[in-house]
Amino acid sequence: MWHRFLPALLLLLVTPACYAANEPPSSYLPLCAELDLAALSGIEMAADTGKIPGDKIAAAFFSLMAARNACAEGRVSQAVSIYDDISFD
């Protein structure tokens, strides 16, 4: 049951780090937000099914955090690549 709250908890823990630089939002944020939402939704669905091992879900979350950090630092192409690698196939 705790796995249902894990995505929200991780989102709360990681989000402040993305804004630590106090830089104004730029044009890449909508793309990053769209990819982030899609990845987070996919991770939540995978966790809800219970068919994906926990270590793979955890690895996906760490990848999600790395992509968020890349977006926050302006490395959008790297972030897009990281988001694209998040899958459970």
With helices defined by DSSP (H or I, 4 residues minimum), what is the helix count?
4
**Counted beta strands:** 0
Instruction: Indicate the radius of gyration in whole angstroms.
Output: 13 Å
Number of domains: 1
Instruction: Describe the largest sheet.
Output: none
Task: Give start-end ranges of low-pLDDT stretches.
Answer: 19-24
Query: Would you list the SSEs in sequence order as H and E?
Result: HHHH
Termini separation:
24 Å
**Proportion of residues in extended strands:** under 5%
The amount of helix comes to: over 70%
Name the structural class. mainly alpha
| Overall 3D form | elongated
Describe this structure in words.
This protein is an all-alpha fold. The chain has one domain (2-8, 27-85). Helices cover 71% and strands 0% of the residues. The protein has 4 helices and no strands. The chain has helices spanning 6-18, 29-49, 54-72, 76-85. The chain is elongated, with a radius of gyration of 13 Å. The model is unreliable at 19-24 (pLDDT under 50).
Strands, helices and their partners?
Blueprint lengths: L5 H13 L10 H21 L4 H19 L3 H10 L4
Helix pairs in contact: 1-3, 2-3, 2-4, 3-4
Summarize the model shown.
With 89 residues, this protein is mainly α. The protein is built from 4 helices and no strands.
Main traits of this protein?
single chain, about 90 residues, 4 helices
